[in-house]
Write a structure and sequence with these properties.
Four copies of one chain form a homotetramer.
Chain A (H helix, E strand, L loop, with lengths): L1 H6 L6 H4 L4 E5 L2 E4 L4 E4 L2 H4 L8 H12 L12 H15 L7 E3 L5 H16 L4 E4 L8 H4 L5 H5 L8 E4 L11 H10 L10 E4 L2 E2 L5 E2 L2 H13 L3 E5 L23 E4 L12 E4 L19 H14 L4 H23 L5 E6 L2 E6 L2 H14 L1 E2 L1 E3 L5 E4 L7 H19 L9 H8 L1
Helix pairs in contact in A: 4-11, 5-11, 9-10, 12-14, 12-15, 13-14
Amino acid sequence: MQIFNRLESEVRGYIRSFPTVFTKASGALLTNEHGDQYVDFLSGAGTLNYGHNNPLLKKKLIAYLESDGLTHGLDMASQAKADFLETFERVILKPRNMAYKIQFPGPTGTNAVEAALKLARKVKGRSNIISFTNAFHGVSLGSLSATGNTKFRSAAGIGLSNVTFMPYDGYLGQGVDTTAYLDKVLTDQSSGVDLPAAVIVETVQGEGGVNEASFAWLRALEAVCRKHDVLLIVDDIQMGCGRTGTFFSFDNIGISPDIITLSKSISGYGLPMSLVLMKPELDVWEPGAHNGTFRGHNLAFLTAKEAILEYWQDDAFQHRIAEKENIMHSWLEFIKESYPEGKFSVRGRGMVQGLAVENPALAGKITAAAFDNGLIIETSGSQDQVIKFLPPLVIEERQLVAGLEIFEQSVTDALGIAPVRSGDVKIRMGAAR
Amino acid sequence: MQIFNRLESEVRGYIRSFPTVFTKASGALLTNEHGDQYVDFLSGAGTLNYGHNNPLLKKKLIAYLESDGLTHGLDMASQAKADFLETFERVILKPRNMAYKIQFPGPTGTNAVEAALKLARKVKGRSNIISFTNAFHGVSLGSLSATGNTKFRSAAGIGLSNVTFMPYDGYLGQGVDTTAYLDKVLTDQSSGVDLPAAVIVETVQGEGGVNEASFAWLRALEAVCRKHDVLLIVDDIQMGCGRTGTFFSFDNIGISPDIITLSKSISGYGLPMSLVLMKPELDVWEPGAHNGTFRGHNLAFLTAKEAILEYWQDDAFQHRIAEKENIMHSWLEFIKESYPEGKFSVRGRGMVQGLAVENPALAGKITAAAFDNGLIIETSGSQDQVIKFLPPLVIEERQLVAGLEIFEQSVTDALGIAPVRSGDVKIRMGAAR
Amino acid sequence: MQIFNRLESEVRGYIRSFPTVFTKASGALLTNEHGDQYVDFLSGAGTLNYGHNNPLLKKKLIAYLESDGLTHGLDMASQAKADFLETFERVILKPRNMAYKIQFPGPTGTNAVEAALKLARKVKGRSNIISFTNAFHGVSLGSLSATGNTKFRSAAGIGLSNVTFMPYDGYLGQGVDTTAYLDKVLTDQSSGVDLPAAVIVETVQGEGGVNEASFAWLRALEAVCRKHDVLLIVDDIQMGCGRTGTFFSFDNIGISPDIITLSKSISGYGLPMSLVLMKPELDVWEPGAHNGTFRGHNLAFLTAKEAILEYWQDDAFQHRIAEKENIMHSWLEFIKESYPEGKFSVRGRGMVQGLAVENPALAGKITAAAFDNGLIIETSGSQDQVIKFLPPLVIEERQLVAGLEIFEQSVTDALGIAPVRSGDVKIRMGAAR
Amino acid sequence: MQIFNRLESEVRGYIRSFPTVFTKASGALLTNEHGDQYVDFLSGAGTLNYGHNNPLLKKKLIAYLESDGLTHGLDMASQAKADFLETFERVILKPRNMAYKIQFPGPTGTNAVEAALKLARKVKGRSNIISFTNAFHGVSLGSLSATGNTKFRSAAGIGLSNVTFMPYDGYLGQGVDTTAYLDKVLTDQSSGVDLPAAVIVETVQGEGGVNEASFAWLRALEAVCRKHDVLLIVDDIQMGCGRTGTFFSFDNIGISPDIITLSKSISGYGLPMSLVLMKPELDVWEPGAHNGTFRGHNLAFLTAKEAILEYWQDDAFQHRIAEKENIMHSWLEFIKESYPEGKFSVRGRGMVQGLAVENPALAGKITAAAFDNGLIIETSGSQDQVIKFLPPLVIEERQLVAGLEIFEQSVTDALGIAPVRSGDVKIRMGAAR
């Protein structure tokens, strides 16, 4: 670790939570330099939905490399890109009746958000954007303006502007529909909230603390957008690609975003890649007006295509996610009820689940204990008070259970009490189902 | 090509200049779906200094993949990252007596610039940044504010602020030292130019039209920075990694930047990666205050390490670059003199050379003809009036000459005249040397 | 009127509502070029609390002019300014136990707001300011950023920033304490609302539609400010100088603003003048750092002093205001009840009263009829839906009643019905009391 | 003075330079509480071109007050305003063939600038404005962004944006035409200088240090504006109303500004008033979109009209200004040559003259000595290195000479040497002519 302490900037973060040198990884397991294995409930913050070094994708990737397939292509036409486009259209868009043009911005999530915000502003000729409390959209300056967390915002060194924050679903307490408030300020010509070009929203806020918006709220949000001629951008960077149980996190909600951002797991292999999807009539870009050196990362296009072919041509994968969601959710409810000392509450959708802890310090103690016990898991939320469960979607059921067992052990370690479980895992799982 | 026209956003750019589907690439050659080969004088806009699919790096990369080496690691510690850091310190920094901390921002150049600007503003507690006419630093909002080109700026959809543009070396004509103007406005308490946190500069402006700053000007610029307690940021994203003949573009200039950004060719294989180097006393980052999903792209760390080991442990590579610079420069001088109709002038340093054309339309005709003739080369500059030569640094001499021959043919095609060359290439090359 | 149509910019406003040329004015009466008299329920938008050409002040003003007393003094020391300061301290500040330093910015309300915002930002080293829905603080760029109305905001031609709008008291419906929402976003480190330097608030929003904040809300607002180390600025430009019944609009509320802005009626005679009051420990201004040619308008200082001496040395004036408030309020309640067709509601405090009309078009018809009938009165609110009653505080009771009778007539004219009043005014007034 | 020290904010400025309490004033003389008289070479920073309490205007003003003429009229039509408009059109605009619409913004210079910048941005749909080094346009936020001085800028507490500063005439040394640089950055699509809505310029920079632009430079500036479809705004707030020898400072230059701001001496009596003149086709204001409580200051309209009638119906006043310019200039040249120790240089046009001092501290010593000797005069320029002579235009010749004699005495006091003058004033004046 010395080399990191000596040479790497103080900005380094995860290395402080997980202070060991990782060497290898496969599926849901990480291995360090001493050969110790860790179950990964972090998944590259949602990037490794298909696991580390997914063997199906790896095989294709190596073959492509060996054949000298084009690696770096700027935004020139390439076979790998054509194949990805064809596959994405055929497997993802068409079955959903979604007509979108596709932009390849620089290969990071924040770059996709920057492009989406530019496009929305250009289309509408307005500068304001509505974002939400606890939102996270990235830390380059344009995205950062739409990100709520003070830690990131204060690092800008300049004032952030052209974004208005509104309360997310539930922010003002149960029973308060915060889209009604949004509607009111957009209707009121003296609210001080300038008519925005777009609303940008996550259907579940991952970094913000696994905050779920209800489907009704999201539909109401879309209705407000339509009423005021405002674009709806869904940032599906962390919640897309199956994380919530469907390819897009909004597949079953009944909304039709004008612009969609994808990144993280889209390449399938942890390779940098991102996409902006826009309804065709919004594609007012001038050629080359948003560029970036790595927007033609063909290795990522290849694995992205293969991941789609492998996992999204039928419903089987979604069903397996639903099964594992059930396991996760049941287990967390079990923990909540078994350890009332923790003052836990459970939230989440699909395979992003959160265990909120009333005392943030306890959340930190639990995740630290988890690392000691062989589980990689992090906290989220404005006070780091929500433990976030993001296992690979492809995790084997026995690994998932093993991880959850480690987690339970870590809870009791942190609480300084004995585990309550008396029976075996199977019994509980049976109950859970 | 139909799939691109139907599905890809209008923002696509290079595909319009080079309308063919590329499939494979190796070294300095690109191959399209019909098996046609193209000499590559674009090199991924400076990303492929070591050529496409460099076989030395490819071998290591495939072995790493096969061994399930960690691919995606956020900013956790990994063996590949440790190896890169150790190599970069030993081979690059130490021999130059450069003490810097290293930040891994998101893996794109623009993300490195965003991080550099944040850091400078934070260190100095000031918001203004000095950039220069014709500068290009990226298109995410923070970087875009420091980028001069209207095409990019106007796409922002909002006003860009907190950056003041000053004339680059030569902008006010020969004999005018524009650093004296900068010194004057920073000294004058009523100039309206707020004291900046930093100056950000490219030693050669690539996108801006292959504009070279003189070494004296760069030293004077550093002196102005020191006088006014302003940080000096060198954006070496396109000009670093050997492009100008040395690893850093400022190796022989006698300046000591406070912050350095690297990207493009740093990974060696065209894989997304970027770095921010900062003097240790400037490393005031809060842990995690600038993050990004793909800042731990271990495949890139691996190839970056291997590229450094292969090319930068001794002077041999630099010597070969100097030889090829000589060929390029001589040939361009020959073209300038042989075809006065073109009203050409030559500029550049190392293996970034520019042929400025008085009539921008002619520049476009020449590069279009070049594509037809089997050469990938682009224009740059505010009016697309400078043809930019960026072959891979590893290009074989015979390929380089072949490319230059194609270029000459394209000049005459565009001018509608016959080539003047009477002898064979060797004679000219001899003369050139 | 021709000269105005030919030469004056289209920006002219009130001239369109009241299309006649005024020549003379006295107390609550305006006279036009034809000798027609109008009762003034506008009072220079709150500037003429002591009436037009108040004879007591006029006498002093003429004597001062005749004696060649200093008229224009920049911010040099003058006798008139010293006298004003002495009087303001003795009569206004000391009896209220208010310790404040006094700044004379440029002589307009917006300039006072600009100065207040600068000072708050400088004291706290923060850029954000909290303002409220429907707020009006002026239209120079700094103040405009804190003003809610789109008509004014869109005229800026640039984005307005560094201000966050929060819902004013009652904005989210009865029963919702909007200061709790403010407290929540300031407590939440991920709300996206940057910790502000200050909150700026009107105790009653005049331009915003005669929206009253409850005393409890204002006290809660102050408590939120204290909790988060945020300054409280009360903009008392329209509501100060007796308009709500006391000299400061917050005299009886139990809050202690850090900064107070005054203008409009402070000079007493309609002469341009404004003040910024700040707690002594906040007076961190550099000498001359906020200047303005007309900040030493000594004629205004003279009349300001005389107005204070005349009206604020004892409680008599306040009692007369309370009596007239009673008449106004009773009458408006009578109108509301007598003409249910109008769907009126009544609001206001002291001698700023509002008659809200469900249908904004009707409000406009009524004020237009009023002008025809000899009454100057305007609408306010985001939809011009609230008729605003701002008679001079010194209006004679019989004039007040006469104006209200004209108003009632105008209501019936606009509704196209007959007045319901059967008895005489006195009966109603008796009932009202 | 105690009351000021105790109660007035630290922002007070001139009171520190001239620490005495003024009571009366007439023409070019100020009188303090002890009956001491001071010659006024400051003139309210250019507000008192017609002297303190001009008796002709005073008489009209008192008569108007006595007749209960409308004092405060918002922007309703009034007889005083109509009369002013008619007079301004007939005496000022028509003889110059100037067709302009007239806006009455809030009655301060900075408010006029705010309105001018808004209008320009709205007309052109662009946000950027070009201003110049050492410019002063006011300190409300919009104007402040176009003001160069750090003392004012840093008081904003937030970043200032949407203005680009260019070098004023002479800033880059004699022989460098800085309009060519402006033309270049506006022509160059990669200069980083966004196409502005307007250029705002003072023909002589008063606060900036009495910097004169040459007529040729101003014409070239206008040509650059026309070439690039950019509006030309002349801020004539300090230099208009006769200060440079003609009513508008550009009367003899051959330029036709699109927008003109006037304030300071426009009312003639030191009363707050300002104007924005705009070419008719630019009058795109929405009714009421830029408002302000005191934009209908009818006392000022009255004295403004009378001042125009008195001084601008024929050339006599201009001739008297020219004579006094001659006296001032000759005397300053005499001082420069007689006291080479002072390293003085002379600059200025009309009755705004500057004596630049190589050592700023000496300039401060001289003006301090002048105050002790009975002369009110201030320094200007970014280092307070230029002594600015702004006597009332109506100053009697003998008072002007008396003031200049005091000034010479103050120079020798500050230098600690004996005056060189051997003869009497008349001889020198004869030589001067």
